[in-house]
Amino acid sequence: MTPLPEDNRIQPVQDDENKGNQLFPVFVKLNNLHLVLIGAGKVGLEKLTAVLNNSPFTKVTVIAKDIIPEMHALAAEYTGVKIINKSFAEYDLDGADIVMAATNDNDLNVYIRQAAHDRKLLVNIADKPDLCDFYLGSVVQKGDLKIGISTNGKSPTFAKRVRELLEETLPDSLDNVLDNLKEIRDQLKGDFEYKVNKLNEITSIFKNKK
C-alpha cells in the first residue's frame, strides 16, 4: 500500500453554522460516471445500495481488503459493479469521476480525501462530515418525482424519519400526474414565459386545495 502522506494539505472546510444549510442541491447522472468506492463492509454496502437503487447503470469499482458476502451478492446483480480485493492506493482513482469511502480508518480516510482532491475529484467520507465535499441525503421517490432531504450532515436519522413521513403522505399516483403535466406542456404553444404561466395556473390547484 502507498504510504500515508505526512502533510495533508487540504484542511476540512468549516461551515458558518449561523448561516444555515448552505449546501447546493443537485441531482447527478451517475449512470454516466465512474464511481470508486473504498470499503466493503456494512457501511460500504449501504452506500452501494443507495447508488444502485437510484442509478442502477453506474460504473462502480469497489476497493477493499475485507469484503462482506452481501457486497459480493449485490455486485453480482449489476454488470457495472466490479470488486477488487486489495488495499487502497492512489492509482485506484485514475479514471474515476467521483469517490466515496466507507472505512473505519481515519488516517486512510484523510489519505483518500487528499488523493481525490489531488485529482480534482469530489469525495464523500462516511460519517465524517468535515471531510466530505458532498453528502448522500435521504431520498423519497414516487415514479419520476424524486425529493432529496438534507440536514447538513447533522442528523441522518432525522432525515430518514422525514423521508418515511413523505413516503406515507405522498400518493403513488403522483407519477400519473407528472405524465399528464408533461403531455400538457408538450402540447402548449407559445414562448417559454407563456408556457410557465400556463403550467403555474394549471398546477395552482395543488396549492389552493384545502
* Number of extended strands: 7
- Provide a count of the helices: 6
Report Rg.
21 Å
Low-pLDDT windows of residues: none
Description:
With 210 residues, the protein is α/β, with parallel strands linked by helices. It folds into 3 domains: 17-136, NAD(P)-binding Rossmann-like Domain (Rossmann fold, 3-Layer(aba) Sandwich), CATH 3.40.50.720; 137-170, Double Stranded RNA Binding Domain, CATH 3.30.160; 181-208, no CATH class. 37% of the residues lie in helices and 19% in strands. The chain contains 6 helices and 7 strands, in the order βαβαββαβββααα. It has helices spanning 42-54, 69-75, 106-118, 156-169, 174-187, 192-208, and strands spanning 34-40, 59-67, 81-85, 98-101, 122-125, 138-142, 145-149. The protein has a 5-stranded parallel sheet, sandwiched between helices. The longest helix is centred in the C-terminal third of the chain and has 17 residues, at 192-208. The mean pLDDT is 88.
